[in-house]
Specification:
The longest helix is centred in the N-terminal third of the chain and has 13 residues, at 2-14. It is built from four helices and eight strands. It is an alpha+beta fold. The strands form two sheets. Strands 1, 2, 3, 4, 5 and 8 form a six-stranded mixed β-sheet that branches. A two-stranded antiparallel ribbon has the order 6-7.
C-alpha cells in the first residue's frame, strides 16, 4: 500500500539511504510479486494521487513510484498469506558472481536430434549494510 511505501521511504531517509546517482536516478528498489502490484493499482490512494503515473494505469505496469524502482518476481517468500517484500538501497545489497555463465547448445542424437540447451552460473546476494535494507510484510490476496 502507499502508506507502507511512505513509511519505508521515511525509514530509509532516517538512515541516510536516499542519495541519488550521478544521472539523477533513484537507487531505491522494491522486490515484490505481481499480487502486490495489482493491489497497489487497485488502491484508490495510489490512483487518486496527482503524481500517479498514468502510464502505469494504462499498461498495468508499475516500474517506478515515490522514488522506488519496482522489481517483479514470483519468488518472494509467502508464509500464512503474508508476503515478505524486500526494500533496499543499491549500496545495501551486494552481488557476488563465483562462476560466470557457461552455456552450450547441441543436438542430441539419442533424442531424435532435438536441441539440448545447457546453462550454468553460480552467484549469490547478501546484505552489506543493515540500515539500507528493509522487509515489508504485506497481505497476499492472490487466489
Amino acid at each position: 500500500s502507499v502508506d507502507k511505501l511512505i513509511r519505508a521511504q521515511r525509514m530509509l531517509q532516517q538512515n541516510e539511504a536516499d542519495d541519488y546517482d550521478i544521472g539523477g536516478g533513484s537507487p531505491l528498489f522494491i522486490v515484490c510479486s505481481s499480487a502486490q502490484i495489482e493491489g497497489m493499482l487497485a488502491d484508490d490512494s495510489y490512483t487518486r494521487r496527482v503524481f500517479s503515473p498514468l502510464y502505469a494505469l494504462y499498461t498495468g505496469e508499475v516500474d517506478t513510484f515515490m522514488g522506488f524502482n519496482f522489481i517483479r518476481t514470483e519468488r518472494v517468500p509467502i508464509a500464512s498469506n503474508v508476503e515478505s517484500v524486500l526494500c533496499f538501497h543499491r549500496a545495501g545489497m551486494g552481488l557476488c558472481v563465483w562462476e560466470d555463465i557457461v552455456a552450450r547448445v547441441e543436438e542430441r542424437p539419442d533424442k531424435r536430434f532435438s536441441t539440448y540447451v545447457y546453462f550454468r552460473m553460480t552467484m549469490g546476494a547478501s546484505r552489506l549494510e543493515e540500515k539500507r535494507v528493509l522487509k515489508i510484510l504485506c497481505t497476499n490476496t492472490a487466489t
